[in-house]
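User: structure tokens for this one?
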Amino acid sequence: MRFSNLALASGLIPLVAGHTIMTTLYVDGENQGDGVCIRMNRDADKATFPIEPLANDAMACGYSGEIASTRTCAASQSSTLTFEFREYADGSQPGSIDISHKGPCAVYMKPVANATADNNAAGDGWFKIYEMDYDESDAKWCTEKLIDNNGFMSVTIPEGLRGGDYLVRTELLALHAAQDSPPDPQFYVGCAQLFLSGSEAGNVPEGVTIDASTYSLDTPGLTYNLYATPLSLPYPSFGPEVYEPNTTTSSTSKVSGAQATQKDGLLPEGCILVRDDWCGFEVSSYSDETGCWASSKECWTQSDECWGTYLATGNKVCQIWQDKCTNIDDQCKAGNYNGPPDAGKVLTPTYKSVDGSTAAFSGGVSSVDFESGSGSGSSSGSGSGSESGAASSTAQAVATSPAAQTAVADADADADADADADASSSTEAAAAASTETAASSGTVSGSGKGHGRGKGAGRCKAKRSHKKRRAHHA
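Assistant:
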């Protein structure tokens, strides 16, 4: 029986823990596989480390972020993307990020010609689709909500975007050392490769540049004192405003034109075992002793590659392949020359499900909050509580009905808008009171003003509150 030298050398060595890393993408609750479609630090021992210094092109997609993954995962307009974060990239120990690492989160997207091409991360084209910092209603930072949700953070893709390849960037900022001398704000960023179905004539939002010049210690929010009593609120948000979809073309049914077709990053034909960027392929069939041992050699060559190239998410599936090779050896020794055994059987193990909610964290701002006719109920006023309507239909989603979420969000948006209200706001206040009454009775009419989050008062106030919050720190 042959054992891979690489397996013996590395199979029992746990990967080093550091801080946090985005390891896994889920599309509409479906696990794509650890490290699959993820651009990840090729140095496994440092995969969870923050980006240092700030003046670093790795700020776009992390260390090794210009090296593309071989796979691009498919998603639909309005799909919910869920990202899993871990302290130990291979999941050998629990935890998503240390509780001391408190701070904001954000999610960006960038259209690219080919997500599987290298050197397309740093630069312009990035637009923000979600951000969340400190939720005053819960007295929690985004990273604390991430911990509460077992390391899962979700966002819904806004409708009407141009179909094609994208990079999706997650950004966490830990502020535990931001007030030090010198200040040490710690960014943890990662990117997933995504193919978005839809019209090639869809929206292409105006983007910003993310590279070595994006952040400095002069950036608002990066030297924030996490330990001040009381906290200086609202938190001085940084970066671009969350993208607001064009409400006249945000619905996929309103965007005509040729539909994009995925050409790159597909699962290779014949792949029977997936490990992040690696695939195992069935060995040649055989009917005599010479062919049997030749196929054994094929198998062990692939085994060595599996053990020798794994990313920080680990090598557990390599043992599955090694067991396959051992079985072929046993068959050859026993004189069973018709094989390989279980030819073509898919060996990729069943992936785990999301162990948490797939709703966006309350207190954040999401692009879908601004969509015309959206049922999402999210207010964004100065850190006040909000709830995204992107909840999954699974039992893990938030139990509150979309109508009730909308009513509560409208009431929150009303409260935030009161500070700037003029004489004409009395009509809005009356509408908000009507909405609250409907919410308490458990029924909200979809035809009333403000209930659809699109052209209603609730949506407008959420937008106004968001912009006011930005202007405060301009």
